[in-house]
Amino acid sequence: MLHKLWSIFCIAFIQILLPLLNQKIYSMLETQNYIKENKQRFLEELIELLKIASVSADPAYKNEVLDCAEAVAKHLKNAGADQVEICTTPGNPIVFGEKIIDKKLPTVLVYGHYDVQPADPIELWKSGPFEPVVKKTEIHPEGAIFARGSADDKGQFFMHLKAFEAMMKTNILPCNVKFIIEGEEEVGSVSLAGFLEENKEKLACDVILISDTSLYNMEQPTVTTGLRGLSYVEVEVEGPNRDLHSGLYGGAVPNPINVLCQMIGSLIDDKGRITVEGFYDNVETVSDAERTEMNKLKDNPEAYKQEIGLKGLQGEEGYTTLERTSIRPTLDVNGIWGGYTGEGAKTVIPSKAFAKISMRLVPYQTPEEITGKFVNHFKKIAPDSVKLKVTPHHGGMPYVLKSDAPEFLAAKKAMEKAFGKEVLPFRSGGSIPITALFEQVLGAKSVLMGFGLSTDAIHSPNEHYGLSNFYKGIESIPYFFKYYTELKK
Ligand code: BES
Ligand code: MN
Ligand code: MN
Questions:
Q1: I want to staple 64 with a disulfide (CB 3.0 to 4.6 A). Which of 38, 53, 78, 256 is the partner?
Q2: β-strand pairing of 144-146 with 94-99
Q3: Whose CA is nearest to atom 10 of ligand 1?
């Protein structure tokens, strides 16, 4: 009898008590220490990832895109994710991974994109776009990493892989986590939209966490609470059926370039308002209280002008720069071409002229509505003497997160912990169309906890990402997981 009791005790000791005694009690402090101790390796790994030219817009980089998806999957696996999968789509693959610790706990879905914008104009890069180098700059005395995708978005989604690794290694992951890192964000997330519909169960979550936006600046950290939508059209004006001698015909025929310029010129009036009929019909009127609140972010027009080499600013009357780039819709020509653009002079009236035009949208405009209104308006203002073609491109819905939402509050608290400063909400002018779709299909809000800066030169030559931004991001993320889980309990 005694013998039996003794053996039961021994078994219990080995199976229950010993592992308990052995299991170290980990804390956030150790997670943050792990991050500090592994900083250099994290940077080296990011550098390797940035060497892969995963340009989604150009089919010539198909192999690099696939290589990059594989590299991301490998990092996820090594960090401790389960079910890591490279999901094939009609376009570029989507990388998935997860760690489910308890179905009863909340689930955070981390989203990012491993595709990058094309590098051109390549001659304006001071070092190769896919040969990452760390250099000091005025804004980044600690150094910044120069490479295409460093800030948008490899350097940013990689923070999540490393924060996850740190939480796993120090045993503090407080809730479930899923990752989807896609490869088509820069070309409109076409495959992801279908993937969401087909994988609602697999992607089920309570919140989506995204680092693909910017801080207001390093002194004033912010959580992004708004993104603008997008409507994008390409227009073609056709005049004569062939190029004409500008002396023989000039004066008597419509020149499609002149016509297109006149049409475009009339789209914005002298108060900076867009003249497309009905353009402002559904624009949200932001309350005075909210406008006062958002303008607490210090606007420095002089520094703003100087940084981009401008003599003066321009925009819609009655709004600050901050408002013009966040709560107001815009219309901009992104490209315009036609006629002779080679060496020297060629006297010619071209047959055709073209332009690409983007419109940034705010709540409650929709891309379908605005594209429709643009097409109607543009047709109406075209003179009878020319033929007009308007082709709509991909668009996206605007997105807003309320600044009293628990998702926002958890991010604010997390960043305040890492920065030691008050963190304010900030509506950005950029677009991440998938956020509206996440809400529609998965029924979850997105938190835009981005760590870039507007000076990072994303989509531009010499894109870079500050090392302190990279590390502050990795530091903040485990706090978000902690505070979000606590808030949901
Ligand atoms: N990460 C950017 C969007 C962004 C950057 C938002 C900085 C806020 C601050 C994203 O990769 C992007 O470039 N989006 C495109 C839209 C897309 C449909 C091509 C954009 O905003 O032009
Ligand atoms: Mn991006
Ligand atoms: Mn981008």
A1: 53
A2: unpaired
A3: 432
Residue 302 annotated as catalytic: no
Determine if ligand 1 sits within 6 Å of the CB of residue 155: no
Beta carbon of 129 within 6 Å of any ligand 1 atom = no
Query: Out of 115, 153, 212, 463, which one is annotated catalytic?
Result: 115
384 is catalytic: no
pLDDT at 392 over 90: yes
* pLDDT value of residue 19: 52
Ligand 3 center to 155 CA (angstroms): 12
User: CB of 453 within 8 A of CB of 217?
Assistant: yes
pLDDT tens per residue across span 322-352 = 999 999 999 999 999 999 999 999 999 999 9
How high does pLDDT run on average in the chain?
Answer: 95
Residue pair 147/463 in contact by the 8 Å Cβ criterion = yes
- Residue-wise pLDDT for 66-89, tens only, equals 999 999 999 999 999 999 999 999
CB distance 117 to ligand 1 below 6 Å? no
Which fold is adopted by the domain 229-317+327-395? Answer: Alpha-Beta Plaits (3.30.70)
Q: Which of 230, 153, 283, 225 is nearest to 445 (CA)?
A: 225
Respond yes or no on whether the N-terminal peptide bond of residue 121 is cis (omega within 30° of 0).
Answer: yes
pLDDT in tens, 409-438: 999 999 999 999 999 999 999 999 999 999
For the chain, what are the domain ranges?
26-227+398-488, 229-317+327-395
- Residue 214 Cβ inside 6 Å of ligand 1? The answer reads yes
